[in-house]
Design brief:
The complex is a heterodimer of chains A (299) and B (91).
Chain A: E1 7-10, E2 13-17, H1 21-30, E3 45-49, E4 52-55, H2 61-71, H3 76-80, E5 82-86, E6 91-95, H4 110-113, H5 124-133, H6 141-149, H7 181-194, E7 223-229, H8 241-246, E8 251-254, E9 270-273, E10 282-284, E11 287-289, H9 293-297
Parallel strand pairs in A: 7-10
Antiparallel strand pairs in A: 1-4, 2-3, 4-11, 5-6, 7-8, 8-9
Chain B: E1 2-5, E2 19-22, H1 27-37, H2 42-45, E3 57-61, E4 64-65, E5 81-86, E6 88-90
Parallel strand pairs in B: 1-5
Antiparallel strand pairs in B: 1-2, 3-4, 3-5
Classes of the chains: A alpha+beta (299), B alpha+beta (91).
């Protein structure tokens, strides 16, 4: 292996992926976003997972630096010359923002200042290229969800009750849930004044937020690319024209990021994006086939 | 006349409408009209300080991304449907 990866073996098994209609109703009652935004998590369905291994934490700036140093690879954001950051009230194209300088050239240097934070401003082809170089692959959407929720399909990696201290989300350090856009705006206004952006944390910073398999950073921190093209769980069901159109075009993102609130960081939450899209909230982790103890002894 | 279709999540910016029939012979013209009639749509569509499309949004004419056509200068015919999508979708 070219880059050092701490990979967690995940035994094969079955679990219930997605979200039940009853739970969707509860989510719709408890927060401000419309039920339709989450309905693509339905129907809940049984999935069989073959054994695999997954990165304990997202790929870091130091790991990504080893890749670019070895290959000369330039990411989509580097080639564009701009990266998306969130300004006072909306997204902004920031000149020079990319994985090396997540807030632009005047901001911090990711490699020197934050080697142990997850790499951001990563497009799907960037993640794919890294994984190939490392002799790994991106996890499938189902593998990612199983690694995050475990056989019991927990709501968050650590359990079914949200713990704001267990993950890097917009609710970290808050005294009450974010339940409307105005509360999010209040959080964002204060956060961007008090913190150097992006608001990632060192990987593994919340060990109490680990999944049943010991995989960390799966709720919040960075949205993570998976291998899969976005597809509706039930092809015969109409989830809305956006989901219909992006089916087969966008790639699945999982886990939510440091700007998201509790319900957007659930293990069943599905997001998807244009594969070329990058922001200062998007990173990835890698997976591989299951490495048996015998196999490990011979490598 | 062309029809512009936007996500239901943005309908609060357009008085509840998700399909808007607008005048214009290019994508730029109809999106500019959309932003003029519904000012909250401007930041969802255009970069601040210029009239370029933000990378947080994708615009399709039929099945084709206008970035693969003539971008905002892509010509429109009568009855064409323009679909505006966020680059990230989901809850």
């Amino acid at each position: 292996m070219i880059a050092e990866h701490d990979m967690v073996p995940v035994p094969g098994g079955m679990f219930t992926a997605g979200t039940t209609e009853t739970d969707l109703d509860a989510i719709a009652r408890e927060q401000h976003l419309p039920r339709a935004w989450f309905e693509d998590e339905s129907p809940a369905h049984r999935v069989t997972i073959a054994p695999f291994a997954i990165d304990r934490h997202p790929v870091t700036n130091a790991q990504f630096a080893a890749f670019t140093k070895s290959t000369g690879y330039r990411t989509r954001a580097e080639l564009r010359g701009t990266g998306l950051t969130y300004g006072e009230t909306f997204w902004e194209e920031t000149t020079g923002a990319c994985w090396r300088h997540p807030m632009g050239l005047a901001g911090l240097c990711a490699v020197q200042d934050r080697p142990d934070h997850p790499v951001v401003h990563i497009a799907w082809p960037d993640a794919h290229a890294y994984a190939q170089w490392a002799g790994l692959r991106l996890p499938t959407e189902a593998e990612w969800e199983y690694a995050a929720r475990g056989p019991q399909a927990l709501t968050w990696p650590w359990g079914n009750i949200f713990d704001p201290a267990a993950a890097n989300t917009a609710e970290l350090g808050g005294n009450s849930p974010i339940t409307c856009m105005n509360e999010w705006k209040t959080w964002w206004k204060a956060f961007r004044q008090e913190h150097e952006l992006p608001g990632t944390t060192p990987t593994g910073h919340f060990p109490q937020g680990g999944s049943p398999f010991g995989v960390t950073d799966m709720a919040g921190q960075v949205m993570e690319w998976t291998a899969d093209l976005y597809r509706p769980y039930d092809p015969s069901r109409y989830y809305g024209h956006v989901y219909r159109f992006v089916s087969g075009r966008y790639r699945v993102l999982r886990g939510g990021g440091w700007t998201n609130y509790r319900y957007q960081t659930r293990g069943a939450e599905r997001m998807c994006a244009d594969p070329e899209h990058t922001t200062f909230c998007i990173g990835f982790r890698c997976a591989t086939h299951f490495v048996s103890p015998t196999e490990r002894e011979h490598t | 006349m062309a029809t512009v279709k936007i996500p239901s999540g943005w309908a609060a910016s357009t008085g509840g409408q998700t399909r808007l029939v607008l005048d214009g012979t290019t994508v730029r013209a109809v999106l500019e009209q959309l932003a003029t009639e519904h000012p909250d749509m401007r930041r969802r569509l255009f970069r601040t300080g210029d009239d370029r499309l933000g990378s947080w949004v994708n615009v399709f004419l039929g099945e084709i991304d206008i970035r693969d056509l003539k971008q905002l200068d892509t010509p429109l015919g009568d009855g064409d449907e323009v679909l505006v999508l966020p680059a990230v979708a989901g809850g």
